[in-house]
Amino acid sequence: xxxxxxxSIIPLxxxxxxxNNMILIEYNDEIxxxxxxxxxxxxxxxxIDLVMPDISYLIENKDRIKAMLISHGHEDHIGAxxxxxxxxxxxxxxxxxxxxxxxxxxxxxxxxxxxxELRQISAGQEISLDPFKIKFVKVNHSIPDxxxxxxKTPSGxxxxxxxxxxxxxxxxxQPTDFNGLTQLGEEGVLALLSDSTNAEQKGYSVxxxxxxxxxxxxxxxxxxxxxxxxFSSHLDRLQQIINAAYxxxxxxxxxxxxxxxxxxxxxxxxxxxxxxDMLLEIRKINNLPDHKIVYLxxxxxxxxxxxxxxxxxxxxxxxxLHKGDTVLLSATPIPGNERSVGETINQLFEKGAKVIYGxxxxxxxxxxxxxxxxxxxxxxxxxKYFIPVHGEYRHLYHHSLLAKDVGIPEDNIFIAKNGSRLKxxxxxxxxxxxxxxxxILIDGSGIGDVGNIVLRDxxxxxxxxxxxxxxxxxxxxxxxxxxxxxxxxxxVYMKESQELIEEAKNRLNIVLKECQEKNITDWSKxxxxxxxxxxxxIYNETRRNPMIxxxxxxxxxK
Amino acid sequence: xxxxxxxSIIPLxxxxxxxNNMILIEYNDEIxxxxxxxxxxxxxxxxIDLVMPDISYLIENKDRIKAMLISHGHEDHIGAxxxxxxxxxxxxxxxxxxxxxxxxxxxxxxxxxxxxELRQISAGQEISLDPFKIKFVKVNHSIPDxxxxxxKTPSGxxxxxxxxxxxxxxxxxQPTDFNGLTQLGEEGVLALLSDSTNAEQKGYSVxxxxxxxxxxxxxxxxxxxxxxxxFSSHLDRLQQIINAAYxxxxxxxxxxxxxxxxxxxxxxxxxxxxxxDMLLEIRKINNLPDHKIVYLxxxxxxxxxxxxxxxxxxxxxxxxLHKGDTVLLSATPIPGNERSVGETINQLFEKGAKVIYGxxxxxxxxxxxxxxxxxxxxxxxxxKYFIPVHGEYRHLYHHSLLAKDVGIPEDNIFIAKNGSRLKxxxxxxxxxxxxxxxxILIDGSGIGDVGNIVLRDxxxxxxxxxxxxxxxxxxxxxxxxxxxxxxxxxxVYMKESQELIEEAKNRLNIVLKECQEKNITDWSKxxxxxxxxxxxxIYNETRRNPMIxxxxxxxxxK
Lengths: 558, 558
What we know:
The structure is a homodimer.
Chain A: E1 7-13, E2 22-27, E3 30-34, E4 50-53, H1 56-60, E5 65-69, H2 75-78, H3 81-87, E6 93-95, H4 97-109, E7 118-120, E8 126-129, E9 132-139, E10 146-153, E11 156-160, H5 178-187, E12 191-195, H6 208-221, E13 226-229, H7 235-247, E14 251-255, H8 257-269, H9 282-285, E15 293-297, H10 307-313, E16 326-329, H11 338-350, E17 354-356, H12 371-381, E18 385-389, H13 393-405, E19 421-424, E20 429-432, E21 439-443, E22 446-447, H14 452-464, E23 466-474, E24 480-489, H15 498-517, H16 523-542, E25 547-555
Parallel strand pairs in A: 3-5, 5-6, 6-7, 11-12, 12-18, 13-15, 13-16, 14-15, 16-17, 23-25
Antiparallel strand pairs in A: 1-2, 1-19, 2-3, 4-21, 8-9, 9-10, 10-11, 19-20, 21-22, 23-24
Helix pairs in contact in A: 4-8, 6-7, 10-11, 12-13, 15-16
């Protein structure tokens, strides 16, 4: 049983990236899955909708999977569940009440209800999934009902924080269960897996309560309509906005599919509290005087189709901005969104709105622990080994420095890669042979059918478009029956480049003539013979490298 | 002469955007051009290299152009000069010594030397270009030899600040000529055009000297090699790095074409000072011990092909990162570059480098005035009318609030659009009929041959690629001789979607059969008949919208 005395920790995603959070804990050939998140595509993933971790390792080891445990209801922790269930069903999913509420919504959207069992747990509870015992500990985050997990095995306890912060004055809920954490520390934590998102931020994160004060004063000052954009999953923030509206005797209309869905779930489950008559439909609220109106919506990230972005562009069907409106962006741009958010802000100003945004104004605080809190987590739980998770390499790196600061020996700190298999036991810890993993790209309804070659083609097409050369030849003789025709898209205006195209045709005709004299009738040969000179010609004339695609049709020789 | 008593101020670019700075001053039908800059393309301008203002108004009014005056040598103020000169040559260009040095380099690269006359001026000087008199006033910025311009006309003086900050302890040069500014204020400024870039930033900008201290302490601490990335045009910064290297007895090697070119110009003109033997070629410096080496390079913005980016990726031919190297990013990311810069930082950390970056560390300060300096500029020059320039709408808007704060009447503040014609005189100021302008996209060697349609096609291609359907028919009869063939690029792996393609072909064949029965031989009709059902089929199967392009070849009926 020696081998089995070791615990394997395998991050399938979330290391070296923000999102894709998914970690495996293996003991005695039993696998626990911690979270199942997606990430949003980076600029170079052209046309991609979502990204999820490669779960082929889990597919191969289906039968060994014991359960999936979810820390909280954000996309980067639950988003991949529907795609997971299409491959592997009937894995019981454990989560708190709100978290399961969010998951249920997803499964309904994907027509996957009944494909597995959702088992509700609550903070403070300990459940047994032999050989594991799991203790759930309440933590604060930017969504209620978030938990850390103490995963107890005969060989020791692995503590996974999920996303967390320490908020002494949270909205609508209790502070982090410090006792629960220190108790695990007392019993002994073999390894700590802790959230690194803000490992570069000095000091302590700011309490959600601070935002409360800002929002209230903004609502008190505003005499026109108020438009608030924030994350649809940020229920604490939504509650504060609802409270402020209530205090200033305003009604609320919600715009945006996800915002409407999430507020409904949260209200039904009791995580949002407000009198029913406070919520009006947009067309109804539009009849009220301006000082009675609050619009609550998505678009804080400048997403093209989100409500605020459409209002800023002036193409929202039901809401037209007018002078005197106050617009509050209660969120900070996620890296990569700065420019689109800036664009939205410019458009809002131009339409005469008073726009309130920016960190320094306390209109948003982070849901992730800062450096002092991260050290506190380490000091409260006193782990033997430390593995920073959730973050780009720079965040993991800085988190590891913090661990050193509080006295974790350098040799006991491990920065894992996606797919790394870290084996830990009281005796020692080391990296064993990794499992194969990677990113799966989701484009439309296709999962994983778009890869590097397709993306490379999309990049070339996006930069200088495509030039298509079509020729019909007589099979056997290779006699040209029609063409060469040249068609381009995304290259230049055809009409403005008639000469260029004509000259290109001439050159192709010369090449074709040569080929016939040498009677080259082999397609592939012919294609390269046409492609290369055309590419060079186009580049010399335009300094551009469009994709060049010769197509040869063959007509049977009569 | 009544009409002529008015001065027209016409921004052709730089309003509502960062870059493209170009402003026209018209008086008595004489035109002065202030700056001639480019801007870098936004994400939605796929494949575009540069953007410049539409100068068709100037082309139409060639003969009225008196001269071009340049405030300083940055791309967003001189970058469009070569493209301007291709359309309009022999317009004398006025600038300070360094500014002309930068321009000369450009003209040489574009083989445009001799296409016009470069006339050197110096700060403090006043020149006469009847009916204008222009007084040049020294200001601080992130490049030496920057000037503001007081443009004097019989109807009053227009003061254009260019880019500026007030630095009490600049590197290698004098502080802003406050006396020159206040003097213009005393004589009376009719209208002030002032830099709005940092109008959202509270307080005063930080002196370049502060960066000096940070850089020195970094150099003193570092025991390995030092790699510094910054803007190649930021000569003050380069001087500081050279000084720090000199103090710590290190040699310097420069990597990156623009960095090498700019340092050479600046050294030749005496704007960079260092003993010749301090500069070594990379292959030479690589033979020195680590603690003797400084690499100076571009890439502070994560630009794909820049030196630092290549080093981070591990594909720089001459420089391989190793543990113990210190990397200093002496610049903050321009909005839109955050993610690529972050990516570079992650890669540098992973290769074991000590990476130093981020505003809070004082490794970079802005070259543009903050709010208190902007107010000071207003108070020193006491303009009757105020026109904020250089900035997105949000910046212009906040700058106008500052003007109100210092007592400029709201009616005397004008936020102009690109192409607006603002007429000003002692009597009054108002917007007259605008001139036509816009953005010209430069792609490779093509200027303006890429527009919205081409960009839209590139966007569609970039998102889901292209599906091409080729058919050869017999002319007249419309009999199908070959095809339909289906080829795709950037859509999905062909091999993984054989079935999809086969099914698509079947559907096309059905459509073709119908067409022949109804004997539809008209190309365009046939194309739509093929296109629409295929689009629907592909979307239903994949939820994607690739560009669909039917091509029909016609072979003469024998």
